[in-house]
Write a structure and sequence with these properties.
The chain has about 375 residues and is of the alpha/beta class. It has 16 helices and eight strands. Bound molecules: flavin mononucleotide (FMN).
Length: about 375
C-alpha cells in the first residue's frame, strides 16, 4: 500500500521529508509498501515572477525518491508553464500535483485551491491541459466535496478528473468542515471502485495511527492514505515501530543539524535580496517615496533561465559537520524547529517544562544545550 506524508506548507520541507523517509526505510518490513512524500505547495504565478524566492517550497535533495512537487494557482497558462518548467529542470520528482483542496477564503476568492471546484468544467480543462503538457505522472489533491449540495457533481468530477491523473488524493471533509465533522469514506470508496486500476486513489484526513492507515485502506479498497498533522515529527506513523528515547534524541539531533545546514545552503545559493524580509523592506521604501514601481527593486529574472542547484544529502551533511554548534547563530530555522521538537518529545516525562523552556530559545547553540540537558540523563 501507499503511505503518504501529505503536503504541509512550512512543514514538509526537504529535511523533514528526509528524516521521515529514513525512518521508513529503516523500519518498514513490507516490501509492497511505499512512502510517497509531497513538497509544500508553490504558487505558479509567484514562481514566474520571482523563482528564487518561490523555489524554496519545492527544494529536494538527491536522496529523495517518490516525491511529488505540488503547485497551485488559478491561471491555466501559468500552471501549465510552471509544470513544464519543473519537469524540464528537476526530473527527479516522481510527479507534479495540482492543489485543488486548500480552504483559505482569500485564496479561494482568487479561484485557486478549493475555489477551483466552484467551476468544475474550467477546473477539468486545467487538469487536462497540465496532464497533457508533461510526461511525468500528474496528480491532484482535492476534497470529497465542496459543500453537501455538490456531492453528486463532485463524484462525477472526481471520476472524470481521474482519467487524466496518475493519482488523486482526497481529503474526506468539505472545505467548510476544516478538520471536524462527518466523514463520508463510502463516497471515496465508490470513486475508487469506478476508476479501478487506472488511477490511484488516496484517502486523507484525521488518521492518527499506523494501524488505522492499514485498516482504512483495506476497508475501503483504496490504494493508500496520506496523512499530515499526525505525521509532524512522528515518522513512526508510517511504520510499525516504537522509538526508544535514544532514537528520538538521535533523530532530533540529526534533524536540527540538517535543518541548519539546509538554511546555510539555501542562503548561499539564493541571494539575500530575494528573501521575504528584503522584499518587504524594498516595498516599504517605495511606498514611502510614492514610487509607482511598487517596490520591485529586483532585476527581473526570466524563470526559464533560473535553475536552483538542488543539494545532495552528502553536501548537506558536509555543511552540518563543518559547522560547530557554537557557530550556528543567526539562523531562523532554529525557531521553526520548535514545531517539530514539541512533537518529538510528546509523552516523555518533563516534556511540558521542556517545551516552556524551549519556547524562549532563539539560537541553535542554546537549543542544542537544552536538548542535551533534557535527554542525556534519560538516554544513558
Ligand atoms: C500546517 C498545514 C499546512 C498544509 N499545507 C498544505 C499544502 O501545502 N498543500 C496541501 O495540499 N494541503 C496542505 N495541508 C492540508 C493537509 O495536507 C491535509 O490535507 C489536512 O491537514 C488533513 O489531513 P490530516 O488530518 O492528516 O492532517 C496543510 C495542512 C496543515 C495542517
Amino acid at each position: 500500500m501507499i503511505f503518504g506524508l501529505a503536503p504541509m506548507d512550512g512543514i514538509t520541507d526537504c529535511i523533514f521529508r528526509t528524516i521521515t523517509n529514513e525512518v521508513f526505510l529503516r523500519y518498514n518490513k513490507n516490501t509492497n509498501d511505499e512512502l510517497w512524500t509531497w513538497t509544500e505547495f508553490m504558487n505558479a504565478d509567484g514562481y514566474m515572477i520571482n523563482p528564487p524566492r518561490l523555489v524554496r517550497h519545492i527544494v529536494l535533495n538527491d536522496a529523495e525518491t517518490k516525491l511529488i512537487a505540488q503547485i497551485y494557482g488559478w491561471n491555466e497558462d501559468t500552471l501549465v508553464k510552471t509544470a513544464i518548467d519543473i519537469e524540464r529542470k528537476y526530473p527527479q520528482y516522481m510527479g507534479i500535483e495540482l492543489n485543488i483542496g486548500c480552504p483559505s477564503p482569500k485564496v479561494m476568492a482568487c479561484g485557486a485551491w478549493s475555489g477551483m471546484l466552484r467551476d468544475k468544467k474550467n477546473c477539468l480543462g486545467i487538469i487536462k491541459s497540465i496532464s497533457e503538457a508533461i510526461n511525468m505522472p500528474f496528480s491532484i489533491k482535492t476534497r470529497a466535496w465542496l459543500n453537501p449540495d455538490d456531492k453528486v457533481e463532485q463524484f462525477d468530477f472526481l471520476v472524470e478528473a481521474a482519467q487524466y491523473c496518475h493519482a488523486v488524493g482526497i481529503h474526506w471533509r468539505t472545505y467548510g468542515q476544516w478538520h471536524s465533522g462527518f466523514v463520508d469514506r463510502e463516497m471515496i470508496a465508490a470513486v475508487k471502485q469506478k476508476v479501478g486500476d487506472n488511477c490511484k486513489i488516496l484517502g486523507n484526513g484525521w488518521i492518527k495511527t499506523y494501524q488505522e492507515h492499514i485498516e482504512i485502506t483495506a476497508k475501503y479498497s483504496l490504494d493508500g492514505i496520506m496523512s499530515a498533522q499526525a505525521a509532524i515529527a512522528n515518522p513512526r506513523l508510517f511504520v510499525d515501530y516504537q522509538p526508544t528515547t535514544k532514537d528520538r534524541y538521535e533523530i532530533i539531533l540529526r534533524h536540527m543539524k540538517l535543518l541548519a545546514a539546509f538554511e546555510i545552503y539555501f542562503n548561499d545559493n539564493v541571494g539575500p535580496e530575494y528573501s521575504n524580509k528584503q522584499i518587504i523592506i524594498n516595498r516599504r521604501k517605495h511606498a514611502d517615496s510614492n514610487d509607482d514601481t511598487k517596490g520591485n527593486d529586483l532585476e527581473p529574472i526570466d524563470f526559464h533561465d533560473y535553475l536552483f542547484p538542488m543539494p545532495t544529502l552528502v553536501q548537506l551533511e558536509e555543511i552540518a559537520n563543518s559547522f560547530p554548534v557554537e557557530e550556528l547563530v543567526g539562523l531562523r530555522s532554529c525557531i521553526e524547529f520548535r514545531k517539530y521538537l514539541f512533537n518529538y518529545v510528546k509523552g516523555i516525562p518533563g516534556s511540558k517544562e521542556f517545551k516552556n523552556e524551549v519556547a524562549q530559545i532563539r539560537d541553535y547553540p542554546t537549543l542544542f544545550e537544552a536538548v542535551d540537558r533534557f535527554f542525556l540523563p534519560i538516554v544513558t
